[in-house]
Amino acid sequence: MDPVIEVVALFLGFVxxxxxxxxxxxxxxxxxxxxxxxxxxxxxxxxxxxxxxxxSLGVHNCREFPSLLALSGYIQASRALMIAAxxxxxxxxxxxLIGMQCSKAAGDNYVLKGxxxxxxGAFFLLQGLCTMISxxxxxxxxxxxxxxxxxxxxxYEIGEGLYIGWASGVLAICGGACLMFSCKxxxxxxxxxxxxxxxxxxxxTSKRDAQSxxxxxxxx
Length: 220
Known about the structure:
Blueprint: H1 3-23, E1 30-32, E2 42-46, E3 50-55, E4 60-64, H2 73-99, H3 110-146, E5 156-158, H4 160-182, H5 197-218
Antiparallel strand pairs: 1-2, 1-5, 2-3, 3-4
């Protein structure tokens, strides 16, 4: 595998892993909309863990969700998927570091290193898929409530936390794809046949015997 591709894939995967860690605690997953509102006295914004409000004076007030079981199903699933994305990203970074050609963790066995790097790419792909499913599912519920004219509650718009999650998912998928499709998982070094001294000696002896036989037959 090309070392440049390894470095690029590791960089993309590491950046995506950091961005997942930034997206999870970000408070602005959804922000209350001002569409159709003449006077706005406060702004409400939420994420997977808490709901916050800011009044016209700039005073912030946040409260965590009191019960996990009382939350909507998509919020619970998004939490689980984001946590799984962090775990997969951690394994992906560690496996890629071990499987790089410049690493001394696996010795000089480049076939084993390629397989470990490919495993790291698979973890990055899982991280990207978990992140994309989580933020896309969350955004789908926001847009569904926003465009529903019969929805009685507060309507929200997509916040910056979801955009960070989408960017993280794209980078993770790109890094994982580079590792998965570029590393040579099944490549083995070719073994070249080197004749031994005994083989060379027996071959020369056979050739000499054949020459002597044909020489005797020439005089018959």
